[in-house]
Each structure stands twice: as C-alpha cells, then as structure tokens.
Amino acid sequence: MVVLNKIYTRTGDAGETALGNGTRVAKHDARVNAYGTVDETNATVGLARLHAKGDMDAQLSMIQNDLFDLGADLCRPDMEKDAEADYASLRMTDAQVARLETEIDAMNAALAPLRSFILPGGSALAAHLHLCRTVSRRAERLAVELAAVEAVNDAAVKYLNRLSDWFFVAARIANDNGADDVLWVPGANR
C-alpha cells in the first residue's frame, strides 16, 4: 500500500531522483526518461478516456493500470537482483502483451484493410488515441535506448510496441470503424 502524506520532499532540488531500488540518478537519466514518458503516455490515455465509453473506456482503464505497472518495472533496475530484494519487483508479463494482441485482433476484425496511410484525426476520441500512439512510440524508443545500455524487461518493451499498435487500431474503431478515417493524399498541396 502506498501512503503519500507529503507531496514535496526537496530531495530532487539538486537535479536527482531516486529509482525504485533507492539509487539516486540525474533526472535526465535514460531510465528516468523512459518511465517518465510512460507516465506521459498514461496522461494522454486519461485525456482519451474523456471521450471513450463502454468497452473502449474499460480497455483504456486497464491500459492505464498496466502503464503504472510498466513505470514500476522500468524504475527498478538490477533485474538480476530481483530474487534477493526485500520485496518482489513488479515486472510486466507476456500475459499483458498477449491481452493487447487479443484486443487488437478483435478490433481489427471489424475494419476494412487500409489502402492509404491515415492522418491523425477524425473524431475527438480518435485524435486523442493518435496522440497516445505517438507518445507511446516515444516511450518505446526510450525504453529500447535504455535496453541498449542496461537490462530492461523484454515484456516491457514488447508491451510498448503492441500498445502503439493498439492505439492505432482503436483510433480507427473510434472513427466509425474506419469510415471516418482521414486519408493521406500524397502531394495534395503541391
């Protein structure tokens, strides 16, 4: 159980922050950038949920919870030391990735194949989902960059990769199952 009695601590005033294992690092550290962008993704999902209803809202709610799990995973380095930690680290799982894949397949079954790239937009929900997609892609790039120099849970990177695909397909669903997608017209303004 998390208890936050005092919001400011002044411990970050010198430009450092604590990771999940207590290690202090610069606020511009690659790990902090990765999980910070996951948090930013979560905020964009909150905006999208203002326009979502029913199953879409329920799925977005699950994604928001997953994104907190993902942030917890990324903020805790030293995966090889998980077994000797005082408490179990929260790590993303392949089951969370598989759930996204199942949802993507179900949504995609209702859509006609794309014959053009689409522009972000259409309905308010679709526009917000495209924003979610682009921010989650940035989070993925940062997680991959981190994984090039430090250990990162493979399921965390896979989840981010599927998540941006989920947002893309969900945006098409939000655009009346693709009927209101805004198609790119190459060279239209020459």
Automatic annotation (TrEMBL):
<comment type="pathway">
    <text>Cofactor biosynthesis; adenosylcobalamin biosynthesis; adenosylcobalamin from cob(II)yrinate a,c-diamide: step 2/7.</text>
</comment>
<keyword id="KW-0963">Cytoplasm</keyword>
<dbReference type="GO" id="GO:0008817">
    <property type="term" value="F:corrinoid adenosyltransferase activity"/>
</dbReference>
<protein>
    <recommendedName>
        <fullName>Corrinoid adenosyltransferase</fullName>
        <ecNumber>2.5.1.17</ecNumber>
    </recommendedName>
</protein>
<dbReference type="Pfam" id="PF01923">
    <property type="entry name" value="Cob_adeno_trans"/>
</dbReference>
<keyword id="KW-0067">ATP-binding</keyword>
<comment type="similarity">
    <text>Belongs to the Cob(I)alamin adenosyltransferase family.</text>
</comment>
<dbReference type="GO" id="GO:0005524">
    <property type="term" value="F:ATP binding"/>
</dbReference>
<dbReference type="InterPro" id="IPR016030">
    <property type="entry name" value="CblAdoTrfase-like"/>
</dbReference>
<keyword id="KW-0547">Nucleotide-binding</keyword>
<keyword id="KW-0808">Transferase</keyword>
<dbReference type="GO" id="GO:0009236">
    <property type="term" value="P:cobalamin biosynthetic process"/>
</dbReference>
<feature type="domain" description="Cobalamin adenosyltransferase-like">
    <location>
        <begin position="7"/>
        <end position="173"/>
    </location>
</feature>
<dbReference type="InterPro" id="IPR036451">
    <property type="entry name" value="CblAdoTrfase-like_sf"/>
</dbReference>
<dbReference type="InterPro" id="IPR029499">
    <property type="entry name" value="PduO-typ"/>
</dbReference>
<keyword id="KW-0169">Cobalamin biosynthesis</keyword>
<dbReference type="GO" id="GO:0005737">
    <property type="term" value="C:cytoplasm"/>
</dbReference>
